C-alpha cells in the first residue's frame, strides 16, 4: 500500500529507466516525486533492444513491475557463443528478458503515471541549486521546480552530474560501435529463447529469434577512433549494410542473411562506460543509473543496475531521515557492486575486438573459462544479488 501522508518531495530528472522506477520506489517509501524528461513524449522511436538480467527482473518484482515486463519482448534464458568458424565455444543459462528499449520506457512511464507520479515532458534540466529548505531546478524552457531533494536519472550525459561536480570525468569510449535491427522473413538457425553470439573475425554479432519470427540482432564493429556524432549520423543505413556485409564476409553463421533481411538498419552509435564517477551526491542531489555508473552494453547489466539503484535509493530515503546520510548510505550499498559490473562489461567488450592472435587464444581459453564460470557459479555475485525491501537500512 502507498502512504497517503507524503512528507518529502523529490524532483527526478530523466524519464528513462532509472527515473520512473525511482519515482515508484520513492512512492512506496512514502516520498512524492515528479519526473522531468528532456524530450517530448514519444520521441524515442523504435530504437534498439536490451536485456534485463535476472537480478534486474528480481529488483522489478519488489515494486510489482515484473508482470509489466512479462508482457514485453521475449525470454532469453540461454546464451550460445560461437567463433567465426561456427565452432561452439560455450553455452550458459540464466533467466533474462529481452525487450525493446522504447517499449520498456513507455511501459515504465505509463505505470508510474498510473501510480500517481507526474511526468513532465520537454523539460531539460540546465541548472539546480540548494535553497534554505530544499533544492530548486531550472529548465531550458525557463521553468523552475522546487523539492526537498533532486535525483539525477539523466543518463550517460547527465547534467546533474556536472552540477554536483564540475570536475566530473567524461564517459570513456570503449572502442566499439553499435548498430543492429529487426530482420523479417529470414530463417536464422536456432530457436526462440537463445541469445546467439558470434565472434566474427572482424566483428562481434548477436541475434535472437522472436517467437513471432522476427530476428533481433546487433553488431559491434570495432573502431579505435571515437566517431563524432555528426560523422556517425551521416552514415546511411545502406552504407551500414554494405560495411557489415564486408565485415562478416567469409565467417560462418547467418549474419549476412540477417543483415540483408533487415528493412531499416539502426543508425550506429559509439559505446561508452564510466569506470568511476567520484561524486555521486552533492547538497540535496544524488545520481542513479547511467548518470552514476554507465556500463558498456557488453555487460548486459545497465538497465538492471538502474533498477537496482532505484529500489536501494527508495529504501535509504525511507529509513534514513537525514537526506545527506541517506545518500551516503545509498553510495555505500551500491558503489562497489556497480563498479565491478562496469569492469566486467569492459572485459567482455575487450574480447569482441581481439585481433587475429587474440582470437586464437580466446577460442582456446573461452570454452575452459566459461565451463569454470558455470561450474563455480563465478558470476553469482552479479546474478544472484537480491534486495530485500523490508530489511532496514542503517544510517
Ligand atoms: C544500444 C544500447 C543497448 C543496450 N543494451 C543493454 C542490455 O542489453 N542490457 C542492459 O542492461 N543495458 C543495456 N543498455 C544500457 C541501458 O539502456 C542503460 O544502462 C539504461 O537505459 C540506463 O537507464 P537510465 O535511466 O540511467 O538512463 P537512460 O535510459 O539513458 O535515461 C536517461 C533519460 O534522461 C533524459 N535526460 C538526459 N538529460 C536530461 C536533462 N538535462 N534533463 C531532463 N532529462 C534528461 C534522457 O532523455 C533519458 O530519457 C544498452 C544501452 C544502449 C544504448
From TrEMBL:
Gene3D superfamilies: FAD/NAD(P)-binding domain (3.50.50.60). It holds the Pfam family FAD_binding_3. The keyword Phosphoprotein does not apply. This is 2-polyprenyl-6-methoxyphenol hydroxylase. Residues 10-342 form the FAD-binding domain. Keywords: Monooxygenase, Oxidoreductase. InterPro entries: FAD-bd, FAD-dep_Monooxygenase_BioMet, FAD/NAD-bd_sf. Signal peptide: none annotated. It comes from Microbispora rosea. It comes from the Bacteria. PANTHER family: MONOOXYGENASE (PTHR13789), PUTATIVE (AFU_ORTHOLOGUE AFUA_6G14510)-RELATED (PTHR13789:SF309). One of its GO terms (molecular function) is monooxygenase activity. The keyword Oxidoreductase applies.
Amino acid at each position: 500500500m502507498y502512504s497517503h501522508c507524503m512528507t518529502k518531495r523529490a524532483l527526478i530528472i530523466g524519464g528513462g529507466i532509472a527515473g520512473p522506477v525511482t519515482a515508484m520506489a520513492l512512492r512506496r517509501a512514502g516520498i512524492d516525486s515528479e519526473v522531468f524528461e528532456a524530450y517530448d513524449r514519444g520521441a524515442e522511436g523504435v530504437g534498439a533492444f536490451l536485456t534485463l538480467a535476472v537480478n534486474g527482473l528480481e529488483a522489478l518484482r519488489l515494486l510489482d513491475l515484473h508482470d509489466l515486463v512479462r508482457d514485453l519482448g521475449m525470454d532469453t534464458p540461454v546464451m550460445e557463443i560461437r567463433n567465426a568458424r561456427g565452432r561452439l565455444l560455450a553455452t550458459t543459462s540464466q533467466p533474462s528478458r529481452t525487450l525493446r528499449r522504447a517499449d520498456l520506457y513507455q511501459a515504465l512511464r505509463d505505470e508510474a503515471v498510473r501510480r500517481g507520479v507526474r511526468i513532465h515532458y520537454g523539460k531539460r534540466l540546465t541548472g539546480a541549486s540548494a535553497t534554505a529548505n530544499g533544492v530548486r531546478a531550472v529548465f531550458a524552457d525557463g521553468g523552475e521546480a522546487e523539492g526537498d531533494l533532486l535525483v539525477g536519472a539523466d543518463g550517460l550525459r547527465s547534467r546533474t552530474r556536472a552540477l554536483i561536480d564540475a570536475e566530473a570525468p567524461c564517459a570513456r569510449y570503449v572502442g566499439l560501435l553499435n548498430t543492429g535491427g529487426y530482420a523479417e522473413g529470414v530463417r536464422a538457425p536456432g530457436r526462440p529463447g537463445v541469445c546467439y553470439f558470434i565472434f566474427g573475425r572482424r566483428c562481434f554479432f548477436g541475434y535472437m529469434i522472436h517467437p513471432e519470427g522476427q530476428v533481433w540482432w546487433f553488431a559491434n564493429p570495432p573502431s579505435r577512433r571515437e566517431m563524432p556524432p555528426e560523422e556517425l549520423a551521416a552514415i546511411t543505413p545502406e552504407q551500414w549494410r554494405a560495411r557489415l556485409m564486408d565485415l562478416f564476409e567469409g565467417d560462418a553463421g547467418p549474419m549476412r542473411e540477417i543483415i540483408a533481411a533487415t528493412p531499416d538498419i539502426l543508425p550506429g552509435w559509439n559505446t561508452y562506460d564510466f569506470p568511476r564517477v567520484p561524486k555521486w551526491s552533492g547538497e540535496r542531489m544524488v545520481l542513479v543509473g547511467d548518470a552514476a555508473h554507465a556500463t558498456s552494453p557488453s555487460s548486459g547489466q545497465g538497465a538492471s543496475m538502474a533498477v537496482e539503484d532505484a529500489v536501494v535509493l527508495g529504501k535509504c530515503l525511507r529509513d534514513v531521515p537525514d537526506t545527506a546520510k541517506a545518500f551516503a548510505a545509498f553510495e555505500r550499498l551500491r558503489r562497489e557492486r556497480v563498479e565491478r559490473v562496469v569492469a566486467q562489461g569492459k572485459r567482455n567488450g575487450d574480447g569482441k575486438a581481439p585481433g587475429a592472435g587474440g582470437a586464437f587464444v580466446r577460442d582456446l581459453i573461452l570454452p575452459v573459462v566459461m565451463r569454470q564460470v558455470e561450474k563455480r557459479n563465478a558470476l553469482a555475485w552479479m546474478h544472484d544479488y537480491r534486495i530485500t525491501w523490508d530489511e532496514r537500512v542503517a544510517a
